[in-house]
Specification:
Layout lengths: L2 H17 L12 E4 L5 E4 L8 E2 L9 E7 L7 H10 L3 E7 L5 H4 L7 H8 L2 H15 L4 E3 L1
Parallel strand pairs: 4-5, 4-6
Antiparallel strand pairs: 1-2, 1-3
């Protein structure tokens, strides 16, 4: 593909995202570090502003971090994330949130995936229940990772 074409397409992607009103953190000029679900800081070009990120040479800006998993969700490993965050000087706490709206999905483990969970929680009523459930974890925290 070549470096020049890659750079041209990267600039075009940034322009299209900006024109579409999609907020992003980062630029093609300089990578930043994005926290992965496994607690690693991975070089990244663009990230959604909601994704925990830091510039090179910086640390994550939060000390007390609540890590909350949806009860029964097996594709997230909060203990691994917490251990890595401790290694970065953070004070993570772990929690689990059970939401009745997700009970139907729990009946079939192959259905209990992030996209299906997101679809259920996307309704205003279910999103409100999620927000209410997360409040108790966020009370004494600088950040909440779900």
């Amino acid at each position: 593909m070549g470096a020049e074409d890659c750079l041209t397409l990267a600039r075009e992607a940034e322009r299209l995202l900006t024109e579409s009103g999609v907020a992003m953190y980062g630029s093609i000029e300089r990578n930043h570090l994005r926290l992965t679900p496994f607690g690693l800081l991975a070089p990244s070009w663009l990230s959604a502003p909601e994704v925990p990120s830091a510039n090179y040479g910086e640390v994550l800006p939060w000390k007390k971090i609540a890590i909350v998993n949806i009860e029964g969700f097996l594709d997230f490993y909060p203990e691994i994330l917490a251990e890595r965050l401790r290694g970065m000087g953070a004070e993570p706490s772990l929690g689990s949130l059970g939401l009745p709206a997700l009970n139907r999905l729990r009946e079939n483990p192959s259905e209990f995936r992030s996209i299906n969970i997101a679809n259920v929680l996307n309704s205003p009523e279910n999103f409100k229940q999620l927000a209410e459930g997360l409040k108790k974890f966020a009370e004494n925290s600088d950040a909440l990772f779900l």
